[in-house]
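Reply to dn_fold:

You asked what the input looked like. This is it:
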Amino acid sequence: MKEIFPHITVDCSTQFGKPVIAGTRVPVHVLVGHIAAGDSLERVAAEYGVTQDDVRAALKYASKIIADETLIYGGAFSD
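and this is what came back:
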């Protein structure tokens, strides 16, 4: 298991190596998806048995990944 961001770890034997909340099997993308769908931070934390800080960390991690992303246009993605 490797911590890749505060509160976020990856392990090939847990959720197929997807980022999860440390000490759990809760994938980051699941928490972010629920927030995006309009669920409150409190509800998401309670539903998945994590802390509100864990949910915030998932959002911060997702933001960092998107900020660091570089899209290459052309080929299949061209208009």
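The chain has one domain: 2-77.
Hope that clears it up.
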